[in-house]
């Protein structure tokens, strides 16, 4: 695969926590006592590969039908069928639905899960299918309503779904397709007209709701190589009935161990990702609205769950447990915050008798649009800076564009001004009193500063003129880090496809495959890539 391929140590990426850093770089770190390991030589793989692993047949049948409608490949559908009788194992990942597919990290999770499933088949001869859990039953609208794309002009363009599209407490997957389509129409004129954008536009404009649109877009972007399940699916909760009721009954004990393990993580020098507030338990769903369950209503809610478990909706702790109870996955592909969740809820698995899968770190990567890649090739600027310090990268490109002749002329100009100023000062200060001498020295210092700025400014203007083919250069850092967040957290998952069409999947999958193989061999790195 051609194109830019650069790796950066994970610890150099902005915002990386000590917990995540230790998990991916140190096998002897305290975090591994809680979460386990992900390297191919770790005993966790032998344990999970030998565990029982069938999935509810009705749920599987439903997923096959849904994914056929989404455009899943015949190979994906066949492996999906194998979950029901144990012929196939699952690699699970997931994210809340976003506008037109969600942030880039959603695509990286999907690509990692697909690549990991295939690598498990190759290394351990165990057929696997990747499953993406769309968290449509979440009600955190603020987390999913934004859409940021990189325009053809290399400007970030952001838009949000109108607040009126969401009722507080209502599931985000239920947000109307028309509201999502309105956000899409606002950014579409800034994108290219390639095949991928045309397909996404057709999906977004085709009705459905936010959850279904996100599922269709992710299936399309990954070439049908991944199965999708929507967390609103009633059969998911039917299949997870024992885990849901068990969680409800053991909730006090689970909250206690989560709180204790949060304190223990802090004592180990890490952080506690999870609180044990109202959003960490189970919700009662009525008319699509998630309702918290106050203490006086728990007995009635328990009876209602027992009659119809499909009216239960798991919070952040229970979702992990239910997901793994239903799919018995070999591995789950998680980001840094989710790995921190797992560190706090490990003992809850033992309380409910749910087997823990291998926790595998998702791909961490920075996409480089072609024009930026061209600037790297011509300037020789360090591509790794795009992931760590894009402002420094811009400075390098500008410096590379500087003319040696202009730089030398600026140096001579500054030297001549400095020498003339020194001669003037030497010739006049003998007769000046202290006050006049101080005034002259201040004016000379100001003159020297102005001369330096004039010379450097002239060189920079000359460099900008020489770099006229990169009119976006002065704002390039906004494409890679914004408000301290790295690109994959705020840029849309369709961004690589806007520049390269459906071929972009080849690059994303290539980078994910390298990540998976390296991670299994003990090397987790951030990837900087372009076509």
Pairing-aware structural class of the strands and helices? alpha/beta
Q: State the low-pLDDT regions, or none.
A: none
Strand content: 5-15%
Helix count, DSSP H or I runs of 4 or more residues: 23
Bulk shape: elongated
N- to C-terminal distance: 8 Å
Q: Helical percent range?
A: 40-55%
- The chain-level mean pLDDT equals 92
How many β-strands, per DSSP?
A: 15
As a whole number of angstroms, the C-alpha radius of gyration is 28 Å
Query: The biggest beta sheet, please?
Result: 5 strands, parallel
Strand order of the largest sheet: 6-3-2-10-11
Could you walk me through the main structural features you see in this protein, from its secondary elements to its overall organization?
- The protein has 531 residues and is an alpha/beta fold.
- Helix content is 52%, strand content 12%.
- Strand 10, helix 15 (336-352) and strand 11 form a beta-alpha-beta unit.
- Helix 8 runs antiparallel to helix 9, helix 18 (390-401) packs across helix 20 (434-466) and helix 19 (404-428) runs antiparallel to helix 20 (434-466).
Describe the structure using short key phrases.
single chain, 531 residues, alpha/beta, five-stranded parallel β-sheet, 12% strand, elongated
Chart the SSEs and their pairings.
Layout: E1 5-9, H1 18-25, H2 31-35, H3 43-49, H4 57-70, H5 74-81, E2 89-95, H6 104-124, E3 128-134, E4 146-150, E5 156-160, H7 177-187, H8 195-204, H9 210-221, E6 227-230, H10 234-239, H11 241-249, H12 251-267, E7 282-286, E8 289-291, H13 298-307, E9 312-314, H14 316-327, E10 331-334, H15 336-352, E11 358-361, E12 365-367, H16 370-379, H17 385-388, H18 390-401, H19 404-428, H20 434-466, E13 481-482, E14 485-486, H21 487-490, H22 495-500, H23 504-520, E15 525-529
Parallel strand pairs: 2-3, 2-10, 3-6, 10-11, 12-15
Antiparallel strand pairs: 1-15, 4-5, 7-8, 7-9, 13-14
């Amino acid at each position: 695969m051609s194109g830019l391929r650069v790796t950066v140590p994970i610890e150099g990426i902005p915002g990386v926590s000590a917990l995540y850093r230790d998990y991916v770089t140190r096998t002897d770190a305290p975090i591994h006592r809680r979460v386990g390991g992900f390297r191919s030589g770790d005993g966790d793989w032998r344990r999970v590969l030998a565990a029982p692993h069938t999935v509810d047949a009705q749920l599987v049948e439903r997923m096959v039908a849904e994914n056929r409608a989404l455009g899943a490949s015949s190979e994906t559908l066949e492996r999906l069928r194998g979950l029901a009788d144990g012929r196939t194992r699952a690699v699970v990942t997931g994210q809340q639905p976003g506008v037109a597919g969600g942030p880039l990290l959603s695509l990286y999770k999907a690509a990692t899960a697909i690549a990991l499933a295939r690598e498990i088949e190759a290394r351990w001869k165990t057929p696997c299918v990747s499953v993406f859990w769309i968290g449509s039953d979440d009600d955190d609208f603020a987390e999913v309503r934004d859409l940021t794309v990189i325009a053809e002009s290399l400007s970030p363009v952001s838009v949000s779904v109108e607040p009126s599209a969401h009722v507080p407490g209502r599931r985000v997957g239920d947000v109307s397709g028309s509201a999502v389509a309105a956000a899409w129409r606002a950014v579409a004129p800034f994108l290219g007209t390639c095949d991928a954008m045309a397909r996404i536009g057709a999906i977004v404009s085709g009705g459905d709701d936010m959850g279904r649109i996100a599922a269709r877009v992710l299936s399309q972007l990954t070439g049908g190589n991944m199965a999708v399940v929507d967390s609103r699916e009633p059969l998911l909760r039917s299949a997870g009935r024992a885990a849901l009721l068990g969680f409800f009954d053991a909730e006090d004990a689970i909250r206690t161990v989560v709180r204790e393990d949060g304190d223990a993580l802090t004592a180990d020098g890490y952080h506690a990702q999870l609180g044990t507030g109202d959003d960490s338990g189970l919700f009662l769903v009525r008319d699509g609205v998630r309702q918290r369950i106050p203490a006086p209503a728990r007995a009635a809610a328990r009876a209602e769950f027992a009659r119809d478990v499909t009216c239960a909706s798991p919070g952040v702790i229970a979702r992990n447990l239910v997901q793994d109870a239903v799919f018995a996955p070999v591995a789950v592909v998680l980001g840094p915050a989710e790995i921190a969740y797992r560190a706090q809820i490990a003992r809850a698995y033992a309380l409910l008798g749910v087997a823990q899968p291998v926790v595998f770190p998702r791909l961490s990567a920075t996409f480089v649009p072609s024009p930026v890649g061209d600037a790297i090739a011509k300037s020789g600027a360090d591509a790794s800076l795009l992931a760590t310090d894009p402002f420094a990268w811009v400075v390098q490109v500008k410096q590379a564009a500087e003319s040696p002749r202009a730089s030398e002329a600026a140096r001579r100009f500054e030297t001549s001004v400095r020498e003339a100023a020194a001669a003037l000062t030497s010739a006049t200060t003998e007769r000046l009193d202290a006050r006049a001498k101080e005034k002259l020295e201040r004016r000379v210092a100001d003159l020297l500063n102005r001369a330096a700025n004039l010379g450097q400014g002239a060189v920079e203007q000359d460099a900008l003129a020489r770099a006229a083919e990169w009119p976006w250069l002065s704002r390039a850092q906004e494409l890679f880090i914004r408000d301290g967040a790295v690109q994959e957290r705020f840029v849309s998952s369709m961004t690589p496809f806007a520049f390269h069409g459906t071929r972009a999947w080849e690059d994303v999958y290539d980078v994910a495959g390298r990540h998976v193989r390296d991670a299994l061999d003990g090397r987790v790195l951030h990837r900087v890539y372009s076509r």
